[in-house]
Model the fold of this input.
Amino acid sequence: MNPDLFKDCILGKRNPNHNSDIIVEKIVLRRVRLPLTVPYRLSYRTFESFEPIVVEAYGMDSGIGWGDGHISPGSSAETREGGWSFIQKMASQIVGLETVEAISNIAKRMHKNKVAGSALIVALEMLKKSPFLDVPEDTRLPLLAPINGLKAKEIEFEIESKLAEGFRTFKIKVGKDADADLARLAIIQKVVNGRATLRIDANRAYDLEQGIKFASSLDPTGVELFEQPCASEDWEANARVAEKSNVALMLDEPICDMADIEKAATIKGVGFCKLKLKRFGSLACLGLGLERVRDLGMEPVLGDGLGSEITGWMEASVAQTLIRNAGEFNGFLKASDRLFETPLQFENGDLVLPKGFSPRFDRQRLDHLTIDRVELAAA
Done:
């Protein structure tokens, strides 16, 4: 990961505060456990809680910046223990520095710990009052909802409940067995009956044969896209599935920087790229990445479904002017606890950001959910 890219994104002409700088006075790091209301099932793991690293950065006479990142075991080579170790070491080295130098130092060393490094950089961006977090007017952003039911009656009940809540885009997880997945999809399509859009996500679980079988056999009725059929590093397998697919493919896990976006644009049948704040390293780089996806003729999708309320708020803020489809920054709806005194608003399928929204944290609740805490201050 090129540190100059981070400096260009964060300190470039698009950021009106690029000439200001702040000394990092103190950093508080937390490991937080957020129990889920119901288990969240992916092809590679079932989560019963999210465990993000939460960063609190204090600037000399300039307020507080927050950041967080959920390291998902099995999603990449980054581990929770490795990320926690990295962020403690990195934070200890940047306390007392100006934010420009601090961000550059993090960017040079975060290639193996992107989620942890991103949490730290984002907190410094907020400290510098990133314009990407401004909410100039009341904003409503439609969210997607997962459909987890396996049996027909479960599926019908879940879909009708989600429709009643206002959701109009559903995500269907597949990847175990193409025939069983196709049968379940057919049930979902029959129940939905044109009342919602469907996104299908294999989470990298198919091999090439199963991926092609599913993609070439699925009924495209009501289906917006098919996400990440094969392993993230196997660009060739995903390209071959895209060639045979009855719907446009979306790449997710391989999309971590501008070069990945450029590569995705060369693959026939890839119509979407999904970006996440925790992979792109900064609010500014995320914004530029979303614009680049559209410049290259694809459509960007944004959101970390495993993110906390902090991630949900930040990704929604970036999405205000850059996203025109259902957001996947819905992790905060899966957790049984919130981190903000005034929780993110959800109404009739939409995340609602009131004009000027900036959250106040519920510190008592945050302390209750914290399983480890480290504080580092400038000498």
